[in-house]
Amino acid sequence: MSERVIINDVGPRDGLQNQPKILSVVERLELIRALQAANVEHIEFGAFVSPKAVPAMAGSDDIIKMMQGERGELSALIPNRRGYDLAVEAGTKTVAMVAYGSEGMAQKNVRMSRAEADNATLQIIEQAKRDRVKVIATIATAFECPFDGPTDAGVVAETTAKFLEAGVSSVVIADTIGAANPGQVKSLMTRLVSDNGARQLACHFHDTRALGMANVFAGLETGIRRFDASISGLGGCPFAPGATGNIATEDTVMMLHQMGFETGIDLDKLIRASDLAEQLTGTAPGGRSKPWLKPFLERQNEKQNART
Amino acid sequence: MSERVIINDVGPRDGLQNQPKILSVVERLELIRALQAANVEHIEFGAFVSPKAVPAMAGSDDIIKMMQGERGELSALIPNRRGYDLAVEAGTKTVAMVAYGSEGMAQKNVRMSRAEADNATLQIIEQAKRDRVKVIATIATAFECPFDGPTDAGVVAETTAKFLEAGVSSVVIADTIGAANPGQVKSLMTRLVSDNGARQLACHFHDTRALGMANVFAGLETGIRRFDASISGLGGCPFAPGATGNIATEDTVMMLHQMGFETGIDLDKLIRASDLAEQLTGTAPGGRSKPWLKPFLERQNEKQNART
């Protein structure tokens, strides 16, 4: 029996928000539908933020309204209580809040101290419990901050424990700028898993320094079984100097399947979702395994068609 | 005290042989000198093969003649006894022979059975002992073969032990087509290290499916402290469908340094060698970390210059 790994595709939010072209609600929904067609059941579908500040995420309420009652975990990023109210009003059942491993990034990103950002998340968690809404808490710059340097593992450990105790559904340990190395991932995640177990922990990596898949493997080694990834490697971070795209969902799923893990995802249809992302945005890089993966899957399909 | 990892740069041979442009002896020597300037002490400098069949490696005798008495391990690929004689006559102190983990690749590459290829290597080892020449034995398709599928780990384990017993200086476990995943690397290398210790073992990875650095990390986890890599990711495999470039030396060194390993290599000068590879070949992909690494190193240098 093979072990299950959850992939949370953040392409429709983290990805689309951090690339130049603004897609229409219809196009964003088309991308989400393509992911669902590939059996991706965990999707960050949008954000409830100011449409003036972040036009790429405008109309996220329309998106979730069209997906009411659908299976899977459809989450939306919310920056604050106002975003929470809008998200829940529109029918969102899972919200995602961002906290910080470093002061520098908290200040730069939300003009708050780390502690203030933590408290904002804790207040959302309290309200969400009353509303039976799930909360995913992401700890940004959990490994390194472009402003403060390497992050204190103790701070991340304390923050993680605090959020879990408060009742989040999962804590995502995020390498926001793609600066983590697999040795560091192994060390931090071993500590967090030892403190809290692996079930409610996840990792979020970028491929800036070519270490995305190495970091996923390091996370797997410590027992982590949930990862954020972005279809076609869409994404980046506008506030983080030097950050490039998220790890590509297709690369991650391919590695997991090769290693014998189960994701429930149809890799062939996932490649079609990746093609769609490239087509819609014009700049999606495409998973780095795609040049190899596409002819491989095509040959497989030809063989199957020849048989039937 | 940090641990030492040896990087054997195979760019001037494995890399240059498997890209379209044929460089002159002077250009190849320029690339080797750039690697030496970055303190890369293990370099596969050329091959003693038919200049008609492999024009890219013609004049390897001139290259080694110009490097007599220099420090470091300068190795040449040899396909057979004739190549061995030419290499040693020109002054080569380390030769590299290729054996096979699979029948399909042995047949395709050298029209021999696996056993015949093994015996050819064993005969070279015997002669090399008499001549006090070092032998590196590479086991190609040690993880998967494009013709035979997954490779039998038992075959790789037997072949490795046989070569070590015969007296090679190291055995390189090669993922010739970039099909290995880190789980498989960990499993095979754990077995080989348990049988033979890590000191004389090395790994050789390609980045075809985006898993190059993940596989290096998996190798490190089992105790492996020697890796082949290719400056600027030069390379591929003409006989292996779907194979793309070797892992880039600059990506590998960057990861190792970030993890606290010592390589002795000057990353700043290594980037200059990578730039030179791109300039000379016109097609070298450049390490995937380079877009990030170059501005990072430039900022560091500016700071140092400002201080002095």
Description:
Two copies of one chain form a homodimer. The two termini of chain A are 29 Å apart. Chain A has a single domain (6-307), classed as TIM Barrel, CATH 3.20.20. The first copy, chain A, has 308 residues and is an alpha/beta fold. In chain A, helix 7 (153-166) runs parallel beside helix 8 and helix 8 runs parallel beside helix 9 (212-221). Chain A is 46% helix and 15% strand. In chain A, helix 9 links the parallel strand 9 (201-204) and strand 10 (226-229). Mean pLDDT of chain A is 94; it is low at 239-243. The interface between A and B is medium-sized, with 34 and 34 residues.
Task: State the order of secondary-structure elements of chain A, H for helix, E for strand.
Answer: EHHEHEHEHHEEEHEHEHEHHH
Q: What is the total domain count of chain A? A: 1
The CATH class designation of chain A is: Alpha Beta
Shape of chain A: globular
What's the topology here?
The structure is a homodimer of 308-residue chains.
Chain A (H helix, E strand, L loop, with lengths): L5 E4 L1 H7 L7 H13 L4 E6 L12 H6 L7 E5 L3 H9 L4 E7 L2 H8 L3 H18 L2 E7 L3 E2 L3 E2 L2 H14 L3 E5 L7 H15 L4 E4 L7 H10 L4 E4 L19 H10 L8 H15 L8 H18 L1
Parallel strand pairs in A: 1-2, 1-10, 2-3, 3-4, 4-5, 5-8, 8-9, 9-10
Antiparallel strand pairs in A: 6-7
